[in-house]
Design goal:
Distance between the termini: 67 Å
CATH topology of the largest domain: f41 fragment of flagellin, N-terminal domain
Oligomer: single chain
Shape: rod-shaped
CATH class of the largest domain: Mainly Alpha
Number of domains: 3
Largest sheet: 5 strands, mixed
Number of strands: 11
Radius of gyration: 62 Å
CATH architecture of the largest domain: Up-down Bundle
Order of helices and strands: HHEEHEEHHHHEEEEHEEE
Strand content: 5-15%
Number of helices: 8
Structural class: alpha+beta
């Protein structure tokens, strides 16, 4: 597996979706700010539109005052203050209440400044002062016309004339101001729409990237794992998952690959045992000990039990074959004791793969003690002729006869047996003795030397 750092899929997805959520939140605030600006400009346009109505009302109230309608004075004065407040709001900005919500309007923008200054000049110096005449000064003379109307003062007549003349200029300037704000509002709206489309494109791109990353990090690896797992379930152990990223899916892929290796090794191990190779070793794939690896432990225990069974079977066959062989010898040479002794000794030496052996028979002469006499010996593939008598209890042979039991020793002295091959062959290094419950006690060894 590639030695790159472990970065979990969960962490990657969390980081991505956190960035995605942050983008959505940013989009929300940017969009909200854009539409708030549009709302502010709409309020400004409405306030500027009110100014046209106020101009018309001021002229009407001035005419009503000339007709001696005194209630129009207060209304005229109120409209003058309203126009003043609107101009101040348009110039400096500030808070206004709209449907019980306070909205802060921006000050006059540079693009509108020239038009606003023209409007202010017309209002303060050519319209407002003239309108104030009808509020602050006496506008009637003592002259009364036949109709009963009082004559206006020259100042009042001049003020009314100027108001009438400048009304259209003031409305035109104010309309230009409204048009400029409408133009700015349209630009803001177009910019907001561009932002919306751009943010929509960004969000859609992020969604597409998110789907691709989920496909890359999760769906494709899981699909590959599913296909390999299905192949493994069908018995195809040649498949492996080629996914090397250090994440959760990579851990699953690595675990499945290790499981496949383990099953493959177990299969090879079982096939070797099936072919009779009980010495085969089990290869660990992940460095676990058999104590921790249940499958490996079970297979190794099975092999050991089969080895034990095979060994027991081999020993039973060895004993059965030996009994049959020596039974045949006893039947064949039953009449000739000397030849029978030789055949027994020579065949036992060959059968147990020893290098020498001998047969002692217990004899008892009249009124004398029992002694053991060597009647046959065989060493290094040749018949040997030697005479030897042992008392009961003397040496290994005598002691085995006396005890009626098997004696087995491994630390035999070098000169214990004096028969060699003459060609540098080794002497006996291990020896066993046994006294069978027959008329012919014996001492024997299934190793390098024995005596019967």
């Amino acid at each position: 597996m590639k030695p790159n750092r472990f970065i979990s899929i969960r962490l990657r997805l969390v980081l991505f979706f956190a960035f995605f959520v942050l983008t959505i939140i940013s989009s929300h605030f940017l969009t909200r700010g854009a539409f708030e600006n549009l709302g502010e400009y709409q309020i400004i346009i409405n306030r500027a539109g009110q100014n046209n109505e106020i101009i018309e009302q001021i002229l009407n109230y001035a005419k009503q005052i000339t007709e001696n309608q005194r209630m129009a004075v207060a209304l005229l004065n109120s409209d003058i203050r309203r126009f003043d407040l609107n101009l101040e709001l348009l110039e400096k900005g500030g808070g206004v209440m709209v449907e019980e919500e306070k909205i802060i309007l921006p000050p006059c923008v540079p693009e509108v400044k020239p038009i606003f200054e023209e409007l202010s000049q017309l209002w303060y110096y050519q319209f407002r002062d003239e309108a104030k005449v009808f509020v602050e000064q006496e506008i009637f003379t003592d002259t009364i016309f036949e109709s009963g109307r009082k004559a206006l003062t020259e100042r009042a007549e001049s003020a009314l004339k100027k108001i009438s003349e400048n009304r259209e200029r003031l409305i035109t300037a104010n309309s230009r101001l409204i048009e400029k704000y409408l133009e700015i509002s349209k630009q803001q709206r177009d910019r907001a729409n561009l932002w919306l489309w751009g943010l929509l494109g960004v969000n859609l791109s992020l969604i597409a990237i998110g789907l691709y990353l989920v496909q890359l990090w999760v769906v494709r690896p899981l699909l590959q794992i599913s296909q390999v797992a299905q192949s493994i379930g069908e018995g195809d152990l040649s498949q492996k998952i080629t996914y090397y990223r250090r994440n959760e899916v990579g851990q699953v892929a690595e675990a499945i690959n290790e499981m496949v290796d383990k099953i493959r090794n177990a299969t090879d191990f079982i096939k070797s045992i099936e072919q009779g190779d009980l010495s085969v070793s089990y290869t660990q794939t992940n460095g676990q000990t058999p104590e921790k690896d249940a499958l490996a432990g079970a297979l190794i225990n099975m092999r050991e039990r089969m080895k034990a069974v095979a060994l027991e079977e081999e020993e039973r066959n060895w004993v059965t074959e030996g009994l049959a062989k020596f039974g045949q010898i006893l039947q064949t040479f039953n009449e000739d004791t000397e030849q029978l002794s030789y055949e027994i000794v020579s065949n036992v030496v060959d059968y147990v793969q020893a290098n020498q052996g001998g047969l002692f028979i217990a004899n008892k002469e009249a009124e004398q003690e029992t002694f053991l006499e060597l009647v046959a010996s065989y060493a290094f593939q040749r018949r040997r002729f030697s005479e030897k008598k042992l008392r009961v209890g003397e040496g290994l042979v005598g002691q085995s006869f006396k005890d009626g039991d098997t004696i087995y020793i491994t630390d035999i002295p070098d000169n214990y047996v004096d028969i060699t091959s003459g060609l540098g062959g080794s002497t006996t290094s291990q020896c066993a003795g046994s006294a069978p419950q027959t008329e012919r006690p014996c001492v024997w060894r299934d190793g390098t030397g024995f005596f019967l």
